[in-house]
Amino acid sequence: MGLPGAGKGTQAEKIVNEFDLVHISTGDMFRAAISQETELGKMAKSYLDQGKLVPDEVTNGLVKERLGQSDVKSKGFLLDGYPRTLAQGEALDQTVKDLKTQIDQVVNIEVDPEDLVQRLSGRFICRKCGATYHRIYNPPKVEGICDVCGSREFYQRDDDKPEVVRNRLAVNIQDNTPLIAYYQEQGKLAKIDGNKSIDEVFAEIEKILKKFDSFKEL
């Protein structure tokens, strides 16, 4: 878990490689179900084609379908991007109970929302050639001039504008707060400082996961 820009995807990739887990992201799961034309995949596609959010019951059903597959049973799994709400968390608990498995640990990567605004709203694009830059992490070599074509004209996508990013973060905080409390009450929540380097964050996660018997020898 973590807000947009906190580094969930980067850490998920490192975790599944280190611990040989099946990586289950909602995006990949939707794409697979749609391409295989499963009943739930068709339902998900009908909502996505209309630009609507996929309802919880469809998402929950897809997760249950995926967690019941043989690779998950033999290797264990990491969920990335699910659950996002308390209702999804409660549905997941019922799913793992039905499948006679469990959620061992919930990792929440914490970064101050204003720091995330800087991370997420710093991107801008050359209007002439489309080269992408970031004010902090990847600025042009000469300020105000595109490295690729020499243009001085840049623009920022609406999705990257600070006010849009702040609104996106606010929605995520509203959804995540009850879910974080839910897992904290279960004693399954590990809070990780996401302001550290990628390797430092992973070292903290690795230390937590190696407390579990199945990972101690890895």
UniProtKB/TrEMBL annotation:
Belongs to the adenylate kinase family. Keywords: ATP-binding, Cytoplasm, Kinase, Metal-binding, Nucleotide biosynthesis, Nucleotide-binding, Transferase, Zinc. It holds the Pfam family ADK_lid. One of its GO terms (molecular function) is zinc ion binding. Gene3D superfamilies: P-loop containing nucleotide triphosphate hydrolases (3.40.50.300). It is found in: Cytoplasm. This is Adenylate kinase. Pathway: Purine metabolism; AMP biosynthesis via salvage pathway; AMP from ADP: step 1/1. Zn(2+) binds at residues 126, 129, 146, 149. GO terms for biological process: AMP salvage. Residues 25-54 are annotated as: NMP. Residues 123-159 form the Adenylate kinase active site lid domain. AMP binds at residues 26, 31, 52-54, 81-84, 88, 157, 168. Monomer. One of its GO terms (cellular component) is cytoplasm. Its main location: cytoplasm. It is an enzyme of class 2 (transferase). Consists of three domains, a large central CORE domain and two small peripheral domains, NMPbind and LID, which undergo movements during catalysis. The LID domain closes over the site of phosphoryl transfer upon ATP binding. Assembling and dissambling the active center during each catalytic cycle provides an effective means to prevent ATP hydrolysis. Some bacteria have evolved a zinc-coordinating structure that stabilizes the LID domain. It catalyses: AMP + ATP = 2 ADP. The keyword Kinase applies. Its EC number is 2.7.4.3. Catalyzes the reversible transfer of the terminal phosphate group between ATP and AMP. Plays an important role in cellular energy homeostasis and in adenine nucleotide metabolism. The gene is adk. SUPFAM superfamilies: P-loop containing nucleoside triphosphate hydrolases (SSF52540). PANTHER family: NUCLEOTIDE KINASE. It comes from the Bacteria.
